[in-house]
Amino acid sequence: MKTTITKEEYDWGTLIKATKGNAYSLILHPQHITAINKLDEDDTTFFKDEQGISWATTRVGPVVVIEADHRHFTIDLDVLK
Q1: For residue 62, how many other CB atoms are within 10 A of its CB?
Q2: pLDDT averaged per 10 residues in sequence order, the chain, 81 residues
Q3: For a tag site, which of 13, 14, 67, 70 has the least CB within 10 Å?
Q4: 5-10, long-range: CB within 8 Å, 24+ apart, which pairs?
Q5: Please, are residues 36 and 46 in contact by the beta-carbon 8 Å criterion?
Q6: Cα separation of 4 and 57, whole Å?
Q7: Cβ atoms of 14 and 7 closer than 8 Å
Q8: SS3 31
Q9: Residue 24 pairs with which residues in a beta bridge?
Q10: How far is residue 54's CA from residue 23's CA, in Å, rounded to a whole number?
Q11: d(CA 24, CA 44)
């Protein structure tokens, strides 16, 4: 299933939404984006989104893998900068 990424700019920062069709979605707030961009290779950070879902985010080379239960996203780091 294809991942769709959209960015919305607000006066308080950038909001990024990743969706997998109609199956599931993930909303990244500025504090999540900042934490992800600080990750070194193979480092992991965790956060809970506004839906109450806990996500594990791991940097793997030029991408980040974001997972929670059966939900999975692979996003290029360039998209998050």
Answers
A1: 8
A2: 94 96 94 96 94 95 96 95 85
A3: 70
A4: 5/75, 5/79
A5: no
A6: 18
A7: yes
A8: helix
A9: 20
A10: 17
A11: 22
CA distance 69 to 47: 14
The encoded tokens of residue 45 equal 């950070």
Look up tokens 């992800």; give the residue: 36
d(CA 74, CA 14): 19
Locate 76 and state its tokens.
Answer: 């290029």
pLDDT, position 51: 86
The alpha carbon of 47 is separated from its chain's Cα centroid by a whole number of angstroms, namely 10
DSSP letter assigned to residue 79: G
Tokens of 44: 């992991």
Burial class (CB within 10 angstroms; exposed 0-12, middle 13-18, buried 19+) of 46: exposed
Single-letter code of the amino acid located at 80: L
Domain boundaries, the chain: 3-80
DSSP assignment, residue 78? G
